[in-house]
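Re: [ENG-882] Designed sequences occasionally contain unexpected residues at chain ends

Forwarding the minimal case from QA. Structure tokens:
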């Protein structure tokens, strides 16, 4: 229920064009979501996603030398 209230607060702040308040409420909602068992895997999933993107972009950014 707290996550829903934080999201509603973020939406209200965004509609009233209070960017700072919207960011704070969204951050609170994200922190509360990560604290739940459902959201506990989110940091690991994001880490795997960023790692996969980094590995895919390595040949494009000359991050590693071509072998052979």
């Amino acid at each position: 229920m707290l996550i829903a209230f934080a999201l509603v607060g973020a939406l209200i702040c965004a509609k009233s064009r209070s960017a700072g308040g919207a960011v704070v409420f969204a951050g609170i909602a994200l922190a509360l979501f990560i604290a739940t068992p459902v959201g506990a895997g989110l940091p690991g999933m994001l880490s795997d996603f960023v790692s996969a993107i980094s590995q895919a972009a390595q040949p494009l950014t000359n991050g590693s030398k071509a072998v052979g």
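QA comment: On inspection the terminal residues look reasonable. The chain has three helices and no strands. Proposing we downgrade this to a documentation issue.
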